[in-house]
Design brief:
- The structure is a single chain.
- The protein has helices at residues 31-43, 63-77, 92-105, 122-135, 146-149, 155-161, 177-186, 199-204, 219-230, 234-252, 258-266, 280-295, and strands at residues 15-18, 48-51, 83-86, 109-113, 140-144, 167-172, 190-193, 209-212.
- The two termini are 35 Å apart.
- The chain has 306 residues and is of the alpha/beta class.
- The protein contains 12 helices and 8 strands.
- An 8-stranded parallel beta barrel has the order 1-2-3-4-5-6-7-8, surrounded by 5 helices.
- Helix 9 packs antiparallel against helix 10 and helix 10 (234-252) runs antiparallel to helix 12 (280-295).
- The relative contact order is 0.14.
- Strand 1, helix 1 and strand 2 form a beta-alpha-beta unit.
């Protein structure tokens, strides 16, 4: 008898895509392409979407573009699919304003990154998140990505923030499985992996799912790993996870940002400077890895993105 899947908090679903932001050939926001991409992701296994994060090129989109993107995606996927809006910035006042705009535009939740560049101490990090949580009525997903921000949300800080009624989730890019395990055990927070290589390990210790860049390209395959694990097929989950590893490595650990590699595979328009498009050699390698994944009998049924 297959044991029941463990109970996990999933306020925004389990298989979330950190969506790219499509641009036209001349670099303008393309809300129609964003709506089409969002609809395709949902049709192929994503049960939640995250906009205007790292993959969404949020540092180079304007406040108005963020709202336009959110409204386009909200209109495309309807009210049943959770849409989380990235509202992070290095300025607490600006973050609060972005959060209020996203709430008015129809977001279901907010992705709030640690303030970057200024490297605030933990008391200031905590105060930043509380200011945002107190300013809106939406639930927050804390975004812990110290490799980009320069500042960790330490586990002790997360434990204190978990007491706030609107702090409900964490997107974890800390690479600290022990710290995540401790917080999962001590709180009811939903922990989402933000590093694809840790999707399965974090899920195994009680994580709620993932927020994935690679899901832009192979949403079904990523979802299949967690579905197999939840069904009790841990060996099958491990095999699928291993098949994904070469593509994950090329997309996320090859020296190019995930935004660049995802757009190279999706033909979703240019990236905005200072990012540059992938070169021919990198693009060819990405396509070979993608095609090899599709060709494997074990993953063929679940690897497509269209």
């Amino acid at each position: 008898m297959t044991p029941p899947a463990p109970s996990r908090p999933r306020p925004f679903g389990s298989a979330l895509c950190a969506m790219i932001t499509p641009f036209t050939a001349d670099g303008a926001l393309d809300p129609d392409a964003a709506a089409r991409h969002a609809s395709a992701l949902v049709a192929h296994g994503c049960d939640g979407l995250v906009l205007s994060g790292t993959t969404g090129e949020s540092p180079t989109t304007s406040d108005a573009e963020k709202v336009t993107l959110l409204r386009a995606v909200r209109g495309a996927v309807g009210p049943a699919v959770p849409v989380v809006a990235g509202v992070g910035s290095a300025d607490t006042r600006h973050t609060v304003e972005l959060a209020r705009q996203a709430e008015r535009a129809g977001a279901d939740g907010l992705l709030v990154v640690t303030p970057y560049y200024s490297r605030p101490p933990q008391a200031a990090v905590e105060a930043h998140f509380r200011r945002v949580a107190d300013a809106v009525g939406l639930p927050l997903m804390l975004y812990d990505i110290p490799g980009r921000t320069g500042t960790r949300i330490e586990p002790e800080t997360v434990l204190r923030l978990a007491e706030h009624p609107r702090v409900v989730a964490v997107k974890d890019c800390s690479q600290d499985l022990l710290g995540a395990t401790k917080v999962i055990a001590a709180t009811s927070l939903a922990y989402y992996s933000g590093s694809e290589e840790l999707n399965l390990p974090l899920h195994a210790v009680g994580g709620s799912g993932y927020v994935s860049t690679v899901a832009n390209v192979v949403p079904r395959a990523l979802r299949a790993v967690l579905d197999a694990f939840d069904a009790g097929d841990t060996a099958g989950a491990a095999r699928l996870n291993g098949l994904l590893a070469p593509l994950v490595e090329l997309m996320m650990a090859s020296g190019l940002p995930g935004t660049v590699t995802a757009k190279a595979l999706l033909d979703a328009g240019p990236v905005r400077e200072p990012l540059q498009p992938a070169g021919r050699e990198a693009s060819d390698g990405l396509r070979r890895a993608y095609e090899e994944l599709l060709a494997d009998p074990l993953s063929r049924c679940c690897a497509g993105r269209r």
